[in-house]
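Re: that chain you flagged

S.,

Sorry for the slow reply, it's been a week of failed gels. I finally had a moment to sit down with the sequence you sent. For the record, here it is as I used it:
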Amino acid sequence: MLSKRFITSAILGSVLAICALAANAGVMLGGTRVILGEKDRQASIPLKNHDTSPYVVQTWVDAGEGKNKTPLLVTPPLSRLDPGAENILRIVRISGDLPSDRESVFWLNVKEIPEKSDQPNVLQIAVRTRIKIFYRPAGLAGKPEEAHSLITLAVVPGEDGKGAALRVSNPSAYNVTFPGFKINNSKELTKAGMVPPFGALDFQMNMISSPQAVDVSYTTINDYGGETPEVVTKAEVASAAAAPHAAVK
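Prediction finished late last night. Pasting the structure tokens below so you have them in one place:
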């Protein structure tokens, strides 16, 4: 049987962990994405410390988890942010060849590191915020705000042939991000995902047991982090010859 002391300690530890998480989420970015145009010297995004404690802020850019070599650089890479203070992060392209016929996507990482506490038994956590950076070459075909209207939908067998998935094909030069798809007016959404330029992605539909025509409604995320107007359409079953694509599980 667990002692009252052990139970009390466990509860106290959980409370401390929750409080530490809340207290450490103090540094906030002024946006959910960054757009860097080919002709722009740099792109910038503000950040502010909304907490009552100072933080050391570490920043870097990656091309996906574990892919730290990129042609982009963020400054300052390391700084101190006092309570209520603001700073500007600047992203610049420094080298490297990137596709000229489509957007490339990278990730901006911002880690807030709290000062060491002078109180005993305090759990402190370094919190990382991660948002997308879209590098946009000049002269791309079409407009980014029109990309979501060009996608095509089809229903295909699900992962490993089980159930059904919604295949989303993107013929545009821009990345298109979906918060999720509503199927047959259900409140349940598929998982969110981003479909790359000239690519496709399969979204597993857990509410559908086998490939069949479905009613689909969706929105996408625009350059400002807002949602585009809802689109309501129908997705038919794809032909048996449809090639497989990466899936959102």
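What I noticed first: The longest strand covers residues 104-114.

Talk soon,
D.
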